[in-house]
Amino acid sequence: MSELSIKLRIGNREYPMRIRAEDEERIRLAGRILNKKAQTYKEKFGIDDQQDLLAMVAFDCQNEKMKNDEGKNDGDVSTFEKIKSLNQLISKKL
Predict the structure, then answer these.
(1) What predicted TM-score, i.e. pTM, was given to this entire model?
(2) pLDDT tens digits, one per residue of 78-90
(3) Of the four listed, 28, 43, 49, 51, which is most buried by Cβ atoms within 10 Å?
(4) What's the CA gap between 92 and 94, in Å, rounded?
(5) Nearest 5°: CA angle at 45, between 42 and 51?
């Protein structure tokens, strides 16, 4: 497992970090997505303050994550119910 030293620019700051080589593409993509969202908020709402922009991006990202996690929980319940039903069928046959 090799490590890389990279600098990631988010907003108007550069962040040095050490990452696993296999994570580089995902981490750089995450940085580009954050910057693009910040640029979108800047253009849409006329916000120039970097802290405000990054706070809005963080809120947006957390909201998206929570929305995605809700769908996963529904799948877990559905899968659990199917397994329970199959166990009942197997128990009846035994």
Answers:
(1) 0.70
(2) 777 888 787 777 7
(3) 28
(4) 6
(5) 50
